[in-house]
Each structure stands twice: as structure tokens, then as C-alpha cells.
């Protein structure tokens, strides 16, 4: 009996140490994977949790941001279907206390609405660079892009 409890203790210690030893690279890969699933599934609360905190705050907080995003997603649901492919995650760079990496993503938008198909075609494929940022040494990540960063600047100037 003593052997079993010692074995279980050792196993729990190993599992615990493995969980604690996640590198910023591992955490980023996990965050990218979850963010991709959030986007494909149209989970507005999850997407909001990975969105630029400045943009979320300027939009009225995470609940308001998620609520408005959900309204937009609901409008688009019957008109298009989104899929994503992560092409590349660049090396993480450190700038003062911030970690940052560029992620090249290809989004494919399948047009379901017949009127939209006539104007836009059946599929739209676009590559974009998403910027992953961590302010806590890689434990948590949020995602932004140049357009969102410009929007944050503009909104801050208005307020």
C-alpha cells in the first residue's frame, strides 16, 4: 500500500512539474489553437478573451464587446462560413516586458448567401498577419492586428 501511494505521489509530482514547465512558446501554440477554435465556432466570449484588452475596454468591457461581436456573428452565420489555417508562428521577440510574435493566418470564407455569391464569388481567401502579445512572460496571450491597433488609437483620440 505504501508503494502505491509513493508511486501516485511521484506521478502527481511529475504531472505537476510538467504543467508548470510550459514555455511561452508552448503557451502561445495552445492559445493560437484555442483562438482558432473560438473563431471557427463563433464563440464571441472566447474571442473576446483573446482580443486586444485596449479595444475591449474602449468597447465597453468584455461583456459588451462579446455581446456586440455575437450580434455581428449571428448576422453573418447564414451568409458565410469561416475556416482558418495557421501557416506560421514566428519566433517570439521580447520588447521590454512584452513578448510578441507574428502569426500568419489564412482565412477562407465560404459564401452561402446567393446574392453575395454573385458579387463576391463562392470563396474568399485572405492571408493576414495577426500579432500575438503577452504582458506576463508568455502565460497569457491576446491577438491583434494593424487595423485593430489603428482603431484603438482613433478611439482613444475621440475620448
**Rg from C-alpha positions?**
20 Å
What is the count of helical runs? 7
| Structural shape | globular
User: What is the CATH topology classification name?
Assistant: Nuclear Transport Factor 2, Chain: A
Question: What percent of the residues sit in helical stretches (DSSP H or I)?
Answer: 40-55%
Order of SSEs, N→C? HHHHHEEEHEEH
* Number of structural units classed as domains: 1
- Determine the mean pLDDT: 84
Tell me the span between the first and last alpha carbons.
Answer: 67 Å
Largest beta-sheet characterization: 5 strands, antiparallel
Q: What's this model, at a glance?
A:
This protein has 159 residues and is an alpha+beta fold. The protein is built from seven helices and five strands, in the order αααααβββαββα.
Molecular structure report:
The protein has 159 residues and is α+β, with helices and mostly antiparallel strands. It has one domain: Nuclear Transport Factor 2, Chain: A. 53% of the residues lie in helices and 26% in strands. It is built from seven helices and five strands, in the order H-H-H-H-H-E-E-E-H-E-E-H. The protein has helices spanning 2-20, 24-41, 44-49, 53-58, 62-77, 114-120, 146-158; strands at 80-89, 93-95, 98-111, 123-134, 142-144. Strands 1, 2, 3, 4 and 5 form a five-stranded antiparallel beta sheet that branches. Strand 2 and strand 3 (98-111) form a beta hairpin. The chain starts with a helix and ends with a helix. The relative contact order is 0.15. Residues 1-19 have low confidence and may be disordered.
Amino acid at each position: 500500500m505504501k508503494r502505491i501511494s509513493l508511486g501516485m505521489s511521484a506521478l502527481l509530482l511529475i504531472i505537476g512539474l510538467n504543467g508548470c514547465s510550459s514555455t511561452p512558446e508552448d503557451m502561445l501554440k495552445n492559445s493560437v489553437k484555442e483562438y482558432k477554435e473560438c473563431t471557427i465556432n463563433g464563440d464571441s466570449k472566447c474571442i473576446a478573451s483573446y482580443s486586444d484588452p485596449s479595444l475591449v475596454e474602449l468597447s465597453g468591457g468584455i461583456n459588451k464587446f462579446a455581446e456586440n461581436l455575437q450580434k455581428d456573428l449571428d448576422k453573418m452565420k447564414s451568409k458565410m462560413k469561416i475556416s482558418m489555417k495557421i501557416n506560421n508562428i514566428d519566433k517570439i521577440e521580447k520588447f521590454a516586458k512584452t513578448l510578441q510574435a507574428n502569426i500568419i493566418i489564412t482565412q477562407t470564407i465560404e459564401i452561402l448567401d446567393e446574392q453575395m455569391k454573385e458579387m463576391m464569388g463562392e470563396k474568399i481567401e485572405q492571408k493576414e498577419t495577426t500579432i500575438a502579445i503577452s504582458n506576463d512572460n508568455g502565460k497569457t496571450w491576446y491577438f491583434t492586428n494593424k487595423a485593430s491597433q489603428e482603431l484603438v488609437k482613433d478611439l482613444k483620440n475621440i475620448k
